[in-house]
Amino acid sequence: MAKSESDGKALAPKENTALAELGLDVEAIAADAQKDGEIGLGDISIPYLYVLQANSPQVNEDSEKYIDGAKSGMFYLTVMDEIFDGRNEGIELIFCYYDKNINEWVPRDDGGGLVAVHPADSDIIQQARPDDKGRPVLPNGHQLVETANHYCLIKSGDRWIQCLFPMKSTALKTSRKLNSVVSTTMIPGTDKRAPRYLYRYNFKTQKEQKDDQIWSTPIFGGQTGMVTKEQYNAAKAYAEIASQGILRMAAKDSAEPSTSSDSGSGSSDVM
Q1: How far does Cα 123 stand from its chain's mean position?
Q2: Where are the alpha helices (DSSP H) in 1-153?
Q3: Phi, psi for residue 163 in degrees, rounded to 5
Q4: Do 92 and 155 touch, CB atoms closer than 8 A?
Q5: What's the burial of 152, exposed, middle or buried (CB within 10 Å: 0-12/13-18/19+)?
Q6: pLDDT in tens, 247-259
Q7: DSSP β-ladder status, 136-137 and 49-51
């Protein structure tokens, strides 16, 4: 995950016995973190947040990617290999930054993989033709998928982890609903629009079905409260990094193969 100099301070617990035993304060330790080597974007992986489907390898006990206890409808955080309940409790997110693009994928049957990320207004879409399910496919067989990218902090225990939550296909309506709420949320007591990361949000998943195709999609659960100062600063730092576009190459290398070809009506996410 990309880090700013404020990340360690922003997310550090107020009391930590282990740190006290070192005899060092947080500021000194944070300063030392800047001296532990030079890590570029080619040296990191950006965690992606997905919704697991019935055909996701993480739920298949015969797959090398299987995660004990994983089920369709759960949220899955790549890199960390963490799973979260989707149907009942859901997850808590702080949305930091948003952009939209067209992702070019090699179909899973051909090995899978994200080939390129194109701007939302790219003319590459004009080179594509619809397949038998109406999805745009390039002459080389690569699929083009309109993707709404939400750069988030996800709560995992007492930590907030930077991640990228891509929404596509049937999940685009959820993305639009979230953006509508964000764009109309004001700073309390004013008529000024609030930053995207002023509030925390709950997300769950629900089953959807069309003909014989069944899949899980993320659903917007609403605001859960205003962020703390520490959370605000951490989210702002992540937003500033994401806004520069420097995370896209690292994110490209962290993406999972698309399963859009496996879900007749289009699965909610890439698994």
Answers
A1: 26
A2: 7-11, 17-22, 26-33
A3: -155, 175
A4: yes
A5: buried
A6: 765 555 545 554 4
A7: unpaired
Q: Which two tokens stand for residue 81?
A: 């290999």
CA angle 215–87–175, rounded 5-degree value: 65
Nearest to 268 by CA among 163, 170, 135, 133: 170
Q: How many whole angstroms separate alpha carbon 49 and alpha carbon 28?
A: 33
Q: Whose structure tokens read 């193969």? A: 257
Residues 231-242: tens digit of each pLDDT: 999 999 999 999
The answer to whether the beta carbons of residues 5 and 34 sit under 8 Å apart is yes
**Centroid of chain to Cα 18:** 31
User: Taking a C-beta distance cutoff of 8 angstroms, is the pair 174, 130 a contact?
Assistant: no
For the chain, which residues make up each domain, given as ranges? 47-254
Helix (H) or strand (E) holding 50, with range, is strand 49-51
Q: Is the dihedral of CA 209, 147, 120, 106 positive or negative?
A: negative
3-state secondary structure string, 134-174? Answer: CCEECCCCCEEEEEEEEEEEEEECCEEEEEEEEEEHHHHHH
pLDDT value of position 136: 93
59 phi and psi, to 5 degrees?
-100, 0
Report residue 263 as tokens: 């879900």
What burial class does residue 111 get, using C-beta atoms within 10 Å of its C-beta: 0-12 exposed, 13-18 middle, 19+ buried? exposed
Could you read off the pLDDT of 28-76 as tens digits, one per residue?
777 887 777 766 555 667 899 999 999 999 999 999 999 999 999 999 9
